[in-house]
Amino acid sequence: MTMQEQNVHDQAEQNQAVREQGPLDNHLVASSLTFGNGKAELDPQTGSIVGFFNTDSPKREYLIDADIPWHSPDFYWGTGMVVTSQGSGSWITPSVGEVRNNVQKLHFDMAHVGLELDVTRSGGTHMQERYVWRNVSGSALTISQLSLEAPFNNYYPSAQKALDECVNAHVFAGGSWAWCYAEPMDGSMPSLGLIVRKGALHSYSLQTQNESVFSNVRGHIVLNVTDNAISPDSFGGQPRLELLPGESYELENEVGWYDSRDEFELDVHTPAHFSTLSSPLGKSIDVDTSLSITVDNSHLFVVHNEHGYSLTADEPGTYYIHLTDGDYSACTEVLFYSPLSQTIAKRAHYILDHQVASYRPGSLAAAIVSVDTRTKLQVIDPFWNDWTDGSERICMPVLLQKALNHGFLEDGDKLRAQQECDDWRTFAEKNLLDLTGASRRGSSQPASSFGKRLYDMPWIAQFYCEHFRASGDAHDLDMASMILNRLTELGGQHFLSIEFAETCECAASLLRACGRDAEAENILDHVLSSANFFLNLGRNLPPHEVAYEQSVVAPLMSLLIGAYRITGEKQYLNGIESRLPWLLSFSGFQPDCRLHGVAIRHWDGHWFGIYRSFGDTFPHYWSALTAEVLLRLPKEIADDHTSKLAAEILRANMANYSADGGATCAYIFPSSVDGRAMNRADPLANDQDEHLNIWMRMIEEENLDIR
After folding, report:
1. Would the pTM count as exceeding 0.85?
2. Distance between CA atoms of residues 126 and 256, nearest Å
3. Are 395 and 697 in contact (CB under 8 A)?
4. Do 173 and 320 fall within a single domain?
């Protein structure tokens, strides 16, 4: 038994022991609270909520199953933790509790931290929750940490099980304007929504997301009234709560079932509407609101108008804005970015200056690698696969060649950029590819690793397509064709390689233009064969590097879109339409520039960053795959909403680039993860540039006019 398996086994035994202790000697006899068309199931010992269930979707588990080994009573809904000026502690088991007439009352004696807590929950159309923390210390009390567990079942056990049973949890902790929305992963309804009606949530955290569970588990979501003790500067600043003797702090939540995001947003009573959350410099963001807006950054300018406010900035970056009205206080972020062509030009210049491994011998000197943006030292680890000189780093030579082809580079960079692309082609052929066109993850990896990772091959083929556009050299098309054919021989038709369908379409178009029609048809046949295979699988998609994720669904959608473009057959159109909700369920709709439209991902900081941090990575560049799918949708499905959402996603990812051309591969968004302060950018510039490549591809191939 491995250490990880032993940990899981031990935790399962501990959880079972707790459950077998039996109920408290009080009136916790009712097993649930009913509300709407569902119920909250209660733990008989602690009174905590262990599950939400709806009769219209009986298999759906909105909270983590109590039998999951890495879940325990410490993380049940409504349990929590507090840090005060008198001490710290958690609440799980009440000293007094009762459930009568669809109303639950719990009392927690927390005198050791100077508090007592009363929790009241009542059923009905919605479930009302009220938490009241009262200062019983006899002296003034400062609260620097106050957190509630909300263990939404955001988990990828397998594609089938995730689609059937799990949820994507979208969290907006904007102070008084705060909510959560747990949407079924297949995009069906109902969704479970939580809305703060009194009090505030100023951030959220994650617990138990680490090397014990790895990438398939998002961990336990924690809603913070404040995370000041751990991460005081996150989310625009975490408050310290001051209570005089006898004073209380109240948090009231409303939990209900919703049949659409629109229905939920109406219930939220949204206090402000933004024309966009991300805008290029030189343009404005208009905010329709009756609240007052204040900012604390001299580079962001606020002008009052008849509908609210107009925001502009003179430097790129994200900016917190505060919306207030008396005791009501909300906070969110907006983004102003340098226009696309400038961002690409600066990024290319930075790559050429800092990320070309020119000090290495021979052809290895043309590799483009990660760099620590704090020191400008290059970061290479031949056997940490996400720090090699291949794999996702292929996005950088693709970026250089695409930028050259689009005319985005400064005159002083054009010659050296093209020389670097020419040299990188030699580097790839000598170090990343074997004679059959199979690839390996890095130049130092053993020969036995060629062809083991199929993800990389469409990216290298994409480079050759772009290089051909510049060189006209038939060798480039030969290589692109060989790589895509070899990918199929290695099982690529049964694997959802990112950008496979798009690269096949691009290569086929270039081959046709050169009169190589038979080769073009052969490559498009790979797309059809793969689309048919996955169409027949339905929900039972195979696991990839993660058991199920947005970047599995997006390539699936791209295959079906490609097949429909090739054949016009309705089976593919129906497949696109039925699976689009799977993809969109990953994308949030929070009014925050890092979240709106951005797909949930929560592991990339660990694999790609210097800090090796798990946790929600917002925005992550693979969210641009959703934009790509939306912009390629058949006209029968595409509409204004899909076009606008695609634009928001592309623009949101501009937050990952700095004014000097540097970048971050992972912005870990929660205020803290497993007790470590986050809400920060990892300093490693690594693999994030594929977002810019996708944007340029959409300009080139889909006539996109969004800059």
Report:
1. yes
2. 5
3. no
4. no
Q: How many helices (H) and strands (E) are present in the chain, helices listed first?
A: 16, 32
Answer whether residue 23 shows pLDDT above 70: no
Considering 284, 308, 337, which residue would you say is the last residue of a domain? 337
Instruction: Calculate the alpha carbon distances from 85 to 143, 231, 672 in Å.
Output: 7, 17, 21
User: Is the per-residue pLDDT at 291 higher than 60?
Assistant: yes
Whole-angstrom distance, CA of residue 426 vs CA of residue 303: 54
- Cβ-Cβ contacts under 8 Å for 121 (sequence gap 6 or more): 33, 40, 49, 103, 104, 127, 128, 129, 130
Are 309 and 255 contained in the same domain?
no
Same-domain pairing of 294 and 172: no
For residue range 490-505, what is the model confidence (pLDDT) as tens digits? 999 999 999 999 999 9
Evaluated on CA atoms 670, 673, 677, 678, the torsion sign reads negative
Q: How many CB atoms lie within 10 A of CB 49?
A: 26
- Residue 609's nearest CA partner among 538, 691, 683 is 683
Name the CA dihedral angle for 452, 606, 498, 409, rounded to a multiple of 10 degrees. -110
State the pairing for strand pair 141-149/127-135. Answer: unpaired
Contact 210, 220 (CB under 8 A): no
- With b for 16 or more beta-carbon neighbours within 10 A and e for fewer, the 229-259 pattern comes to bbbeebbbbbbebebeeeeebebebbbbbbe
Angle, alpha carbons 365-367-371 (nearest 5°): 105
Q: Are residues 150 and 297 in the same domain?
A: no
Which residues, in sequence order, are bridge partners of residue 256? 193
The DSSP result for 411-477, as a single string, is HHHHHHHHHHHHHHHHHHHHHTB-TTS-B-SSTTS-GGGTTS-TTHHHHHHHHHHHHHHHH--HHHH
Cα–Cα distance for residue pair 482/464, rounded to 1 Å: 11
Shared-domain flag, residues 213 and 283: no
The residue out of 337, 369, 388 marking a domain boundary is 337
pLDDT in tens, 444-458: 999 999 999 999 999
Domain harbouring 285, CATH code = 2.60.40.1080
Per the domain annotation, does 482 fall within a domain?
no
Residue 343 included in any domain: no
Residues 263, 277 share a domain: no
Alpha helices in 490-549 (DSSP H): 500-513, 517-537
Structure tokens at 488: 């199929």
Range of the domain at 141: 3-268
Task: Answer whether residue 455 is part of any domain.
Answer: no
**CA distance between the termini of the chain:** 53
94 with 17, same domain?
Answer: yes
Total count of domains within the chain: 3
Tell me what percent of the residues of the chain surpass a pLDDT of 90: 94
Residue 368 lies in a domain: no
3 state SS of 262 = helix
Rounded to whole angstroms, the Cα distance separating 114 from 246 reads 10
The CATH number assigned to the domain holding 45 equals 2.70.98
Calpha distance 428→173 (Å, rounded) = 45
Tens of pLDDT, residue by residue over 49-83, are: 999 999 999 999 999 999 999 999 999 999 999 99
Do 194 and 325 lie in a common domain? no
Contact of 530 with 493, CB cutoff 8 Å: yes
Residue type, 66: A
Give the E-state strand segments of 136-237 in sequence order.
141-149, 167-174, 177-184, 191-198, 203-207, 220-226
Gap between the Cα atoms of 583 and 265, Å rounded: 20
Instruction: Give the DSSP H or E segment for 649.
Output: helix 640-652
Is pLDDT of 20 > 50? no
